[in-house]
Amino acid sequence: MINCIIVDDEPLARELLESYVSELEGLELVASCKDAHEAGDILKKTAVDLILLDINMPKTSGVSFYKTLVKRPKVIFTTAYADYAVEGFELDAVDYLLKPFSFERFKKAIQKVKPTEDEVTADFIMLKADKRNHKVNFRQISHFESIGDYVKVFLKEGEVLIISKTLKKLETLLPKTSFMRVHKSFIISIDKIKFLEGNQIQLPMCKIPIGQSYREEVKSKLV
Fold first, then answer.
1. pLDDT digits (tens, 9 = 90+) for 42-89
2. In a 10 Å sphere around its CB, with 0-12 CB exposed, 13-18 middle and 19+ buried, how is residue 11 labelled?
3. I want to staple 78 with a disulfide (CB 3.0 to 4.6 A). Which of 97, 109, 159, 183 is the partner?
């Protein structure tokens, strides 16, 4: 189930989105808000997976509001102004809906939010490499290394898988209790850590550098 909120200052726009949400199985509306202030109050009290967020609102724009969120749910921006699309996608928006949009266009955007073949399930993840879908148990994984738009997955048996996915996307699919981003190019399995030495983490097979912007978080969790 995907929990979502609607944020739009136009009553008719909210009503349309409410009707669209009600027609999709697996999508549950938590609240329909008329402005960023109201939405902020909801997010403080309720866990939300997705925001259906209008960009052009009085006082605080949708983009400005989304930038203020420390923990950002996924977002689909809606607006009547095409000029805002680039700024929206710079914030890693799931999609951008130009008003007026049809139910079919809305449904297509929601499909991008739903779990994919690589989504975390139980204690394993499905990873596509070498034209095959590999079932990989989390305990098998030592670490991940980014190589552009691809990621190397290092398994404890010494096997390496190369998957077509960015590290940023992969990070959202991993359980945060078991894996940690320690560098712009590395995610490690926490239970594979042998020791920390200076700004490096010793894993069974190699040493991984700790990036400067990740040091405080690493120290708070591991030291």
1. 998 888 999 999 998 888 888 889 989 888 899 999 988 766 554 555
2. exposed
3. 97
As given in the structure block, the two tokens for residue 221 are: 């969790």
Cα 176 from Cα 184, distance rounded (Å): 16
Q: Would the pTM count as exceeding 0.85? A: no
71 three-class SS = coil
Going by C-alpha positions, the residue among 166, 134, 168 that lies closest to residue 150 is 166
The CA distance from 170 to 167, in Å, is: 5
Q: C-alpha 61: how far from its chain's center?
A: 22
DSSP symbol at 198: T
3-state helix, strand, coil in the chain (%, to 5): 30, 35, 35
143: helix, strand or coil: strand
- Euclidean distance between CA atoms 183 and 122, whole angstroms: 26
The position carrying tokens 């809906």 is 97
Distance, in Å, from the CA atom of 216 to the CA atom of 13, rounded to the nearest integer, reads 43
In what helix (H) or strand (E) does residue 156 lie, and over which residues does it extend? none
